[in-house]
Amino acid sequence: MCSHAKDIRPIAGSPFAHTYSIVAFDPEAKEMGGAVQSHWFAVGSVVLWAEGGVGVVATQSFTNPSFGPRGLEMLRKGMRPEEVVASLVDSDEGRDMRQLAVLDAQGQAAAHTGKRCVPATGHVVGEHFSAQANMMLKGSVWPAMAKAFRKTQAPLAERLLAALEAAEGQGGDIRGRQSACLLVVRSESTGNVWEDRVLDLRVDDSREPLAELRRLLRIRRAYDCMDKGDNALEKGLMEEAMQHYSAAEHMFPENEEMVYWHAVTLVNIGHLEEALPLFEKVFAVNENWREMTRRQVPLGLLKVDEAGLRRIIDL
Questions:
Q1: What is the pLDDT of residue 100?
Q2: In the beta sheet, which residues pair with residue 20?
Q3: Domain ranges of the chain
Q4: Is 230 within 8 Å of 246 (Cβ atoms)?
Q5: Are 58 and 32 a contacting pair, CB within 8 Å?
Q6: In sequence order, what are the beta bridge partners of 136?
């Protein structure tokens, strides 16, 4: 049986992800996820595991990557997080050097910190979250993460990132910083894996991974607005599409694609004159957008007559 099978892989073969992380649940948004930072390359590829409608697992310190899929499978079968943690730890000969957190789709959490994890090390389990850390500069890291998560009023991804930034504010990993990851899935599965993953951002190698992660989250939010604009555009809701594209452009003004689709939408609702300066701005960055513009007309994505198209192309 899975719960009794011994994992005899030597500790020396385990990925070293000495780190701090948080797994958490948002009952209002019906989302759950995790965030992690470490002085180790591509920490997100080994620490965080999540499945929509099932749960989230964080395996760290001398990681045991099998804890991810095995933990999710146990949750899928209806085991409670504390049962999952107990089963995984009991099956592992390297348990004393492991750190593990498990969260289910109802927001219940449980954690384990092995007695031989490198100090400062510990975890705190609260309502709808678990924060854990090992090899930290100070023992105030995980309490600071818990406090930041509780007090931050924002979407789940921003709350998770706030917890990481609070950890860094306490000194974070004693070795420094290198990589980070932010992962969010739906707590109620749609039945479609591609729809259940809400957000998956990774910084695999950076001197300032949390600053880069926050930049990526800002861009992701801008692209979320772009997606909403695209959906509105498909339905012919031009005014709504323009609102979303304008919001995206405001969030990420240095991206010419945001500006371009804002311009296209302006043309489609009859505001060619307002669109022309935006097209000119985009063409100055990349001439290929002119050809892109020509190709929109036959598809009906850019609703403009020949004279109007010529005014745009000749900018």
A1: 97
A2: 37, 133
A3: 11-205, 222-313
A4: no
A5: no
A6: 173
